[in-house]
């Protein structure tokens, strides 16, 4: 089963005292979006830390049983907003 293209935007919770992004919140947002849009329960594994750069991207692994997909997260602005899509 292939995941359909999924896109979502959400403001990230950025720590006021560091440049570490709340990756657990991103993983949960992707997991919830996949479940709401396709009914599939997946596990999401994003990098533990990233450097937030407007226009930058990073990949998260989407695991559903034996199926593996990639969610690409695109950083939109300095407010921490992003969009993601599963390929």
Q: How would you describe this protein?
A:
The protein is α+β, with helices and mostly antiparallel strands and 87 residues long. It has one domain (9-86). The chain is 18% helix and 33% strand. The chain has 1 helix and 5 strands. The protein has one helix at residues 23-38, and strands at residues 9-11, 43-45, 57-64, 67-75, 81-86. Strands 1-5-4-3-2 form a 5-stranded antiparallel beta sheet, with helices on one face. A hairpin with a 2-residue loop joins β3 and β4. It starts with 8 loop residues before the first strand and ends with a strand.
How would you summarize this macromolecular structure in one to three sentences?
The protein has 87 residues and is of the alpha+beta class. The chain has one helix at residues 23-38; strands at 9-11, 43-45, 57-64, 67-75, 81-86.
Give the tags.
single chain, five-stranded antiparallel sheet, elongated
Helical content band = 10-25%
Whole-number mean pLDDT: 81
How would you classify the quaternary structure?
single chain
Main sheet, how many strands, which sense, barrel?
A: 5 strands, antiparallel
The low-confidence runs, each spanning 5 or more residues with pLDDT under 50, are 7-20
Main sheet strand line-up: 1-5-4-3-2
Structurally, how many domains make up the residues? 1
What's the number of helices? Answer: 1
Shape: elongated
The helix-and-strand class reads: alpha+beta
Distance separating the two termini: 12 Å
């Amino acid at each position: 089963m292939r995941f359909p293209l999924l896109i979502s935007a959400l403001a990230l919770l950025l720590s006021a005292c560091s440049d570490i992004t709340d990756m657990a919140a991103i993983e949960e947002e992707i997991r919830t979006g996949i479940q709401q849009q396709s009914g599939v329960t997946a596990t999401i594994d994003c990098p533990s830390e990233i450097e937030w750069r407007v226009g930058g991207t990073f990949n998260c692994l989407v695991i559903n049983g034996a199926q593996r997909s990639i969610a690409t997260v695109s950083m939109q602005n300095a407010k921490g907003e992003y969009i993601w899509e599963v390929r």
